[in-house]
Amino acid sequence: MSHANTPYTDQRVAIVTGGSRGIGYAVSRKLAAEGFAVVVNYAGNIRRAEETVAEIEAAGGRALAVQADIADPVAVEQLFTTAREAFGRLDVVVHSAGVLEMGHVTSDNLAILDRTLATNLRGSWLVMARAAESLSEGGRIIAFSSSVLGKSFPGYGAYIASKAGVEGLVRVLANELRGRGISVNAVAPGPVATEMFFAGKSDEQVANIAALSPFERLGQPEEIADVVAFLAGPQGRWVHGQILRVNGGMV
Q1: Which residue out of 25, 42, 156, 159 is catalytically annotated?
Q2: What's this model's pTM, rounded to 2 decimal places?
Q3: Is 8 a catalytic residue?
């Protein structure tokens, strides 16, 4: 394929996990527009991933779709290897892949917790660890948390537990990388108009959640992608170990 024939070693390269859906899709397109070659990671929907790559290439960018289960260490290793083989370097890792499964904190919902932690927390550990091992000075690791941590809504227990764990990992890894010149941060969006957000919600529920922000609307995926691009770009070089709550004032 044309994008992988000859690595452009002067072009910055980003991996975006979950890069073909929702916020990850917006991040993939934004980073490509900012001049990055983008490795679009996806879990299972190859059509969506290939469409994302085609859109980036049609706009003059370079991209590659790579399937990987981010909770599987072998798959994560292969994702990073493929990225470097295709583009010759790696500068930024954006870890946006995740799941949201609702369920109250009850004994019979333990499977929901296990599935959520496997993807959201174990996956974050694996991707962030591999990023820390792969990036050189000036590299950026950008994880995803959620502003729902500040709300503690019923039914979000497993999701909030997983994202609280991610925030802890970000802060610890930021300290562990002392002297490496690699920044580690997380973006914690508020409610954003994505398929994952709308799933299972009535129009009334959506309207009530949108009203939580003083702006009285949902965030757009592109607004989150703009913040990721800031962290990945030269303006974000002095931001480290932070959780950026990008939520329209929903506190």
Answers
A1: 159
A2: 0.94
A3: no
